[in-house]
Batch of 4 targets.
Target 1
Amino acid sequence: MANIDLGFPTDGDWAWITEQYVETAWDSLTEERQHKTSKKVVRDCTLEQITRLIEKHGAENQVFIARDNHDELVGFIWVGQSRSGFTGAVQAYILSVYVTEACRGQGLGRRLMLRAEDWAREHNFKSIGLGVAAHNVSAITLYEKLGYQPETMRMVKDLGGSTATVTGLV
């Protein structure tokens, strides 16, 4: 992994970053969830998020891109800030991590994570969080090795497609 440089994205990198972000979002869904939605819906929702993030890129969030010695893109990490819904504390937050299949298992994910942590420290954040798909065992293993610990678990239940309306709430 010594021949991989970490840097900032160029204007020409955003299409690739966006495509990998969408793929990562799709892959984070369980197979059951993938069957209940479409990749187009995930793409549309993700593109909406990315558009908002790019507007504040460099100010409130940062992408670090990984290039090999042939100047090929081989990974990225997108780190920003978020406010805890439980404590109100502002913390750094890993929005997305991606490493090409050819570079997986070689330490690039670790390098990207450590770079994001450095960014968080440079911006005086006291903690950093992330979300990970429960079925992504390799990512969970990496995060645990880096000292990340579970904080909450998000769960979902399918209600059979009903579209009930809640009324009477104050």
Target 2
Amino acid sequence: MSMILKKVCGMLVILLFSYEVGISDSYIPTNYHKYESTVYNEIEDHFPELLTPPIIAALIEHENCINLKWNSCWNPKTNFKTKWDNGLPREEGAGMAMLTRAWRSNGLLRFDTLTNLKMKYPKELKEMTWSNIYDRPDLQIRAMVLLWKSNYQKFSNKGLDYWDVVAMSDAAYNGGYSGVYKDTQICMLKKGCNHKIWFDNVETTCSKSKKVLYGTRSACDINRHHVVDVLENNFIKYIQIWDDNGYSGMVE
């Protein structure tokens, strides 16, 4: 049994206890029920081979929910926007998927996740633009599923355990595939580090900036917390709610 699977199984015991005593981490946001079937259908249509479908719901909660009981949680209208000191836009994260585009301080585009994703999946995302992104929750979820699929396929071809593929796919969703790939290469050169295992191995070789970005957290802190939050905090409760509502939380 992989390290991450042991962690997930342990979290399942904690979750079952939390339902009994009412711990808030088990709370399912109200807006989730509006989009549960959409998440299910988009996975079925575009990534049916995903063995753990509730991971997409867990990812949406992380990306979209600052507070589980706020209306912005599981809300396609939610956005994250920052500006440079000169007033020019710096970054925009859109909707439940928090698809992101960012600009340099001189106004030049630095990267655009949506445009790059449309180049890879032109048929599936042909209707999606930055003009309509906040009005199409179905396309937001589809884009999220396809981006996860893209990362998953790259890591699953490297002979990794399933849960390590999932962990690295999640890290790549937040910080890009190239960043995680670079971390695996650093791990290969580090004594005692297994580049095919995420937790306590590749996890420890973050090559992202250590400079504080938001609050007290650096890009490295944000990326590593992303994996922990999605896989260990959010995923388990969505397995439970999917099973309760008649969907398959885990594919045998």
Target 3
Amino acid sequence: MKPDKPPLTRVKYWLMSHLPGKRGLRYLRKYSRSMPTSVQAEFDAALEAARGRICIDLGANMGLATLQMAPVASHVYAFEPDPWTAQELRKAVGPLDNVTVIEAAAGTKEGTFPVYRSAKFGDDPRKGSLSTTLVADKINVDTTQPIDVKVLDFRAFLTELDADIALIKIDIEGAEVALLEALFEDPVCARIDHIFVETHETRVPALAQRSIALRRRARNMRRPRVNMDWM
């Protein structure tokens, strides 16, 4: 674990985070990552608090986070929209009876929508699967050969689940911005303890300002506790 930054350094990062554009975003990330508790330590603590409770993995890919959640959770719902990747995910979770693989993306409305794969997906599907996205503006995807996938209204999913959620991991390649904007406005959000998010504004520059706004809002939320520096 890296040593903690001095308090005055964190104050500097916080002040500089209010600069416009990419420079402000860079300092906002530095501020978030300078906090005394590392992201992994926070995730481990959230996992411990999730014992016997529900966890959700959005953008489960090959199941790395799902397999961390499964030993402690009462149940894990793992969302993965890409058919190739969902098949690999099912192999990874194998006989685990407390994991449900949902071959769908989490979004703000239900339907069938195109996803875009990495331009190198055909050469290396395992590596290429990490880039699959609903966002056509993402710079490292091929938009000429989209595939249609199922998308679920995630707020409706949580409402129908009718239970408190201990932990949600979100890594959905740019679609996290619209999802969080909607989720933060929904009363169902108060039923979630922890959210860990990987943001993708470096791959979708148009999302930079919205990502900054979400980070600032998330930092002031008591429940859920939102960490936007996952991975």
Target 4
Amino acid sequence: MAYAAITSAASGDNTVVAAVTGKKIQVERFVITSSGTVNAKWRSGTTDISGLFYLVANSGATCPGFGAEYWLETVAGQALVLNLSAAVPVGGIVVYELG
């Protein structure tokens, strides 16, 4: 199990976990919070792997863990990216494994 801090603030794609050659990034749980109104979604490289999270100021979203299960998975060799609809600070943490 590994952890990555989420400290994204740029509109568009923000890499949260860098790509690892030949490995998938399997997200077990995450928490994101926003300081303003923004839509956020997870991506595998440039491909969406979640729907939108509609966040307003001082709100957030969480996906709890379920043991060995995971919520999201990137394609092998692609980064885990948080895409933001606007330049709004979004923070949190993601718990993942490489598969």
